[in-house]
Write a structure and sequence with these properties.
It is built from ten helices and eleven strands. It is α+β, with helices and mostly antiparallel strands. Strands 1, 2, 3, 4, 5, 6 and 11 form a seven-stranded mixed beta sheet that branches. The radius of gyration is 20 Å and the shape is globular. The structure holds L-homoserine.
Amino acid sequence: MIRIKVPATTANIGPGFDALGLALDIFQEIEVSREAIGTAKVSWAGEIQVPDDENYVLKALEYAYARVDYEKPGYHITMFPSQIPVSRGLGSSAAAIVSGLYAANFLLDYPFSKQELLEMASALEGHPDNVAPAIFGNLVLSTASELKTHYAVIPFPEDLVLKVFVPDFKLSTALARGALPAKYDRKDCIANLSRVGLLVHALMSKDYDNLTMALEDQIHEPYRYPLIEDGTVLKSAVKTTEAFGLFISGAGPTLIALLRKEDMTFDAKLKLNELPLKHHWECFTIAVNKSGAFYEPIK
Ligand code: HSE
C-alpha cells in the first residue's frame, strides 16, 4: 500500500495564460493498494465527495491502464477529503488526474516516466499549466506541440509569499473559458508576450522593479473579472497595499496577491473586514510547493 500526495496549483499568474503554473502547499491525498485482478474498489475516508463515474482519479487511472497491454492488477483506492477547494481555480481536477496517473504507475510497477505522466495528464486536462506544476512542483512554464509537452521548472523565490483569497462561491472553468474572445488584438498579444517574459525574468533574477506591471494581463482577466463578484473591489484594495499585484488563480474565482515575505503591513492596509464585499472571502498565506506529486510509503 502507498500514499500519494499531489499539490494544488495556480495557473496563469497574470499574463501566462495556459502557460505558467505554480504548485501550492495544500494537497489531494489518496491511498492505493494492489488487489486481485478484476478488483476495482473505492472507499472514502469521510463523506463521498464525487460518484465513481465522475471521479477524475479513476478516469486517469483507467486511462493509464489502457496504455499497457499486459495484465493489470486490481486496486483499492481510499480517497481522503481533499484540502484543495473544488471549482475555485486551485487545480483540484489537475490534482485528481495526477493522483490517478501516479496510482496507475505504482500499480503497474512504474512503467511511465514523468514526461509520459505529463503527456497523459495534459491530454486529460486539455492544457498543461496546472498538471505540470502538480507533477514537478515550483513554478513551471509549459507548452505543448503535437509531439511533446515541453516544460521548464523555475524555482520560486524564497522572499515572496502568496496571499490567497477563496470566496464562498464556485466558478466553472468551462464558463470562465467560454467568456474569452476567439480572437485578440495584436496590441493585447504583444502586451502579454512582453509581460510574461518580464515576469519570468523578475522571478528568476529576484529583481522586482517590473513585477507589478509584469503581473498585468490582457488575455483573460478583463473578461473574467465580471464573473467574479467582489473581484474588482479586492483588486482596488490590494492596490492600496505594498503587494506587487493581484491575479486571478487559474480560471477563478480565487484571487492571489503576491508580496514580499518581509511585508508585515498587508493585512492592516487591506482591511478585508471593512471592504464592501457581498461574499465571504477566506484569506490565508500559502507556501509554494517545491516537491510536486510524491509517494509516501505506509508502514
Ligand atoms: N489556464 C486555465 C484557464 C486554467 O485559465 O482557463 C484553468 O483550468
